[in-house]
């Protein structure tokens, strides 16, 4: 701005001078505050309130952190307590894999309808080691707080294993991969976790079922159950054969590299790996102990790496309808491994698999080829064993899931519970499905002296093991049922089983320790590894699980 513009304006001549402004009153500072004044009291109250709010928020944060693990478990896809898939939890696709074997007895397949059972099971449910082994499984599971992808029933379904003789297999589309949007959070109904009650006088506590595998008890239990040095030598040879045929990545194959592998359409790495692993675990091996600990460490690494967020073992998925069997078998593996080791890394993997199993249960109460679709006794039996293994390891299993299983068995029963068919409404019972159904009933709490169970045992005894008619699937389930019963029924069965299996095991050559599949009814689709694993499990029966009625036996 120029000097000229800063000059005062010139007052015209004759104009009155401007009126002077009144002076402003002086501004005085506020009076000093005193120590006991009102403002000081207000400040103290504000400060106290702030401290109190901070303490409350800190307390709530601690509670939230403690409750977060439980919320994550609930978000892993556990379905309604009664086992039915709700609309909120009804999307997704199982991507596991499985085994073969069903039944060779002629039976017509039911239409899948679920009639109301005439009689509900009135018996109470009694479903009910330790290294610190760790693996890389933590790196292969989901991040904290992520909800697992829910399941979606497929429009089509495809059989997983050969249907029983005389039954026609379904045709269906291959499994559908989950979509990315299936990871969105959904409202999952809450459920009541089953805490196994104290075992009745006639039953062993469920968390003790795996204890016979320990070196301290194995020798005594082996002798008491009817095993001996010959059976143990046969088991050792079988495990050596499995070790020789483990693949570089730690998995096993149903097709080879051994002779007489499964047919091309039956290949299933999840099932093969799980069946082999179960044989090693039953003999007391873990990733940290046992003669075959390195084999187990490599095998569980391959299996765990294949598990996806919802708990399905999908990376090593099989072809066609064999998926759900392998999913159940892999669940048994991780549950038993956690029960034997109590390793936190295995607990997370195992609980994920159990949650997946619960969510995949069909409205009928069982399981079949696709999640949440329908049910058959063959697939259901494997999942019941998976849940039993979970409870042996004291993992979380909803009570409603077990109630749903009993509801399905009521619908699949023949002769008021002493025999079972392949599906609900199937009028024809068979030894294989009866053995599987009776084992489920034993796990669900039937008393040893239940007349329906005794009648079913008589039916199994009328269909003994014979060298002229091999069906290791039936033999395996019947062996477990009769071992649980003990007494004369088990002794008679064992006197037949032991020499038959020992006599037919390969004694020399590259296949030494295995069993030929050529004579078995499902040897062609299952192959040598399938037959070998089930024969090995039977020879490990003496200590694999304590018989549930063992207080009556030894």
Q: What's the helix-strand series?
A: HHHHHHHHHEEHHHHHH
Provide the spatial order of strands within the biggest beta sheet.
Answer: 1-2
Ends distance: 113 Å
Q: State the major sheet.
A: 2 strands, antiparallel
Number of helices: 15
Strand content: under 5%
Number of strands: 2
Radius of gyration over all CA atoms, rounded? 33 Å
CATH architecture of the domain at 93-107 and 199-552: Alpha/alpha barrel
- Arithmetic mean pLDDT: 74
Low-confidence stretches: 1-7, 27-37, 69-202
Write a structural description.
The chain is 42% helix and 1% strand. By secondary structure, it is mainly alpha-helical. It has a domain at 93-107 and 199-552: Glycosyltransferase. A hairpin with a 4-residue loop joins strand 1 and strand 2 (419-420). Helix 3 (229-244) crosses helix 14 (523-539). The chain is globular and about 100 Å long. Residues 1-7, 27-37 and 69-202 have low confidence and may be disordered.
């Amino acid at each position: 701005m120029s000097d000229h513009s800063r000059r005062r304006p010139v007052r015209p001549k004759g104009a009155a001078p401007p009126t002077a402004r009144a002076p402003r009153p002086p501004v005085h500072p506020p009076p000093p505050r005193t120590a006991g004044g009102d403002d000081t009291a207000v400040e103290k109250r504000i400060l106290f309130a702030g401290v109190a709010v901070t303490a409350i928020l800190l307390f709530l944060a601690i509670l939230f952190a403690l409750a977060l693990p439980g919320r994550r478990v609930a978000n892993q896809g556990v379905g309604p307590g009664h086992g039915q898939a709700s609309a909120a939890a009804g999307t997704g696709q199982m991507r596991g894999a499985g085994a073969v074997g069903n039944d060779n007895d002629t039976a017509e397949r039911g239409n899948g309808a679920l009639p109301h059972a005439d009689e509900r099971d009135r018996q109470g449910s009694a479903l009910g080691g330790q290294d610190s082994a760790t693996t890389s499984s933590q790196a292969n599971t989901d991040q904290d707080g992520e909800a697992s992808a829910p399941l979606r029933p497929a429009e089509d379904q495809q059989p997983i294993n050969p249907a029983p003789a005389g039954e026609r297999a379904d045709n269906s589309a291959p499994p559908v991969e989950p979509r990315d949007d299936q990871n969105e959070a959904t409202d999952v109904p809450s459920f009541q976790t089953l805490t196994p009650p104290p075992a009745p006088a006639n039953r062993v506590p469920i968390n003790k079922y795996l204890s016979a595998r320990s070196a301290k008890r194995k020798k005594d239990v082996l002798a008491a159950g009817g095993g001996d040095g010959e059976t143990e030598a046969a088991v050792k040879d079988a495990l050596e054969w499995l070790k020789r045929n483990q693949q570089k990545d730690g998995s096993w194959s149903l097709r080879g590299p051994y002779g007489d592998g499964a047919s091309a359409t039956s290949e299933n790495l999840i099932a093969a790996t799980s069946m082999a692993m179960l044989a090693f675990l039953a003999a007391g091996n873990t990733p940290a102990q046992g003669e075959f600990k390195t084999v187990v460490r490599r095998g569980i690494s391959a299996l765990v790496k294949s598990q996806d967020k919802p708990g399905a073992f999908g990376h090593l998925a099989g072809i066609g309808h064999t998926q759900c069997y392998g999913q159940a078998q892999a669940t048994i593996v991780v549950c038993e491994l956690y029960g034997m080791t109590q390793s936190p890394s295995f607990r997370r993997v195992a609980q994920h698999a159990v949650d997946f199993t619960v969510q995949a249960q069909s409205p009928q109460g069982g399981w079949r080829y696709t999640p949440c679709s329908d049910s058959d006794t063959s697939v259901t039996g494997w999942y019941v064993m998976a849940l039993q293994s979970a409870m042996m390891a004291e993992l979380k299993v909803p009570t409603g899931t077990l109630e749903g299983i009993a509801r399905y068995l009521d619908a699949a029963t023949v002769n008021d519970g002493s025999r079972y068919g392949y599906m609900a409404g199937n009028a024809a019972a068979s030894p294989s499905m009866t053995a599987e159904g009776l084992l489920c009933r034993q796990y669900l709490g039937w008393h040893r002296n239940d007349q329906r169970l005794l009648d079913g045992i008589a039916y199994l005894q009328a269909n003994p093991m014979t060298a002229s008619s091999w069906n290791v699937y039936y033999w395996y389930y019947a062996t477990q049922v009769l071992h649980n019963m003990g007494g004369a029924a088990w002794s008679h069965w064992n006197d037949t089983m032991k020499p038959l299996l020992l006599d037919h095991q390969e004694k020399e050559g590259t296949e030494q320790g295995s069993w030929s599949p050529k004579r078995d009814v499902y040897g062609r689709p299952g192959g040598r590894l399938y037959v070998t694993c089930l024969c090995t499990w039977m020879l490990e029966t003496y200590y694999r699980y304590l018989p549930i009625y063992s207080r009556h036996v030894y």
